Amino acid sequence: xxxxxxxxxxxxxxxxxxxxxxxxxxxxxxxxxxxxxxxxxxxxxxxxxxxxxxxxxxxxxxxxxxxxxxxxxxxxxxxxxxxxxxxxxxxxxxxxxxxxxxxxxxxxxxxxxxxxxxxxxxxxxxxxxxxxxxxxxxxxxxxxxxxxxxxxxxxxxxxxxxxxxxxxxxxxxxxxxxxxxxxxxxxxxxxxxxxxxxxxxxxxxxxxxxxxxxxxxxxxxxxxxxxxxxxxxxxxxxxxxxxxxxxxxxxxxxxxxxxxxxxxxxxxxxxxxxxxxxxxxxxxxxxxxxxxxxxxxxxxxxxxxxxxxxxxxxxxxxxxxxxxxxxxxxxxxxxxxxxxxxxxxxxxxxxxxxxxxxxxxxxxxxxxxxxxxxxxxxxxxxxxxxxxxxxxxxxxxxxxxxxxxxxxxxxxxxxxxxxxxxxxxxxxxxxxxxxxxxxxxxxxxxxxxxxx
Length: 452
Fold this sequence. Notes:
Helices cover 68% and strands 10% of the residues. It is of the alpha+beta class. It has a domain at 125-294 and 330-443: Up-down Bundle (Outer membrane efflux proteins (OEP)). It has a four-stranded antiparallel sheet, with no helix packed on it. It starts with a helix and ends in a 9-residue tail after the last helix.
């Protein structure tokens, strides 16, 4: 009976664990996904971000490694040596000198067992350790900015696919409307032909129109599936998972101020910050190269036990110690240090040029984003003003065709015209959203509440 209760409790715990895992999985895949949800999932699951996060951990370890140059190094050592011949000291002479230790520790043993500890410390290395620490700290900042740049790229890609999916839905709706209009008109023309009010040519022409618009509807539906697959990959979801977006293809106007955008980009764009950090790192690289030409001061201390009997080794009579300091002054190294300093200086100059280059490119990118915003907005305004006229023209064409004063071709042209204007409007809104997303990426604006 007791085993039965244990089995029931274990089964209940397992069921609770599975249910909790399923609930967690559902919470990570919202039924209706907003842009904010998509960006959050991308940040959590994207492999490029995870790889860069490991680079951050590496950079932190490198700082610890650089700081180790300022700390003493301590080692324990033990060994055994057989000596074919050893120097013998007269016991009486050593006693006269007041030496109370085993005399053989100075001359050695034939069977020599040793154990001890050594400590070394770099007193002065020409500033190399300090320069390495500064470079390692800058390296951590570089990896942090690189992570932000990777996140900006992932966010931009999430926006591109999310907005692309909304555009695909809208394109499919427009294609479906056009197909439905063409199909309905074909049936109407066929009915009028049976009544003798339209020609066989009008019926055939209407049927051809249905056939012509069908491929566009198929392509639009296929585009939805393709974009969904790409978005799932970016978000780290399975291909069997379904994605339902929330919201429609809509936009909000941006106040365009190119000068302010430039100031923000120069201050916040990761590429700009990375170039500035690169200049500082190269500057400290010069100091590292110069350290090779400076004097090197190292201190050491050793404490050793030496005996021919391991059991009697660890006592005062068998111990000895030494301490010292060594100063090394470089005189000539075949111009190796000069070459290193020259290389470091040129890398420093190169980093300044790279910063100027990315500064110029940033100005181009900001100008491009502003021009794209203006262009998309102009197209939106032009298509908005024409869409009602196109709908009215379609109504008039239907009425004229029914009354026998309009042609079949007028109806078909009006249907296609309305469809084209709606498609132009949807694509212009998508272009505006992507122009703003590109502007946000250029300015270094990360994860703005999922709104563009």
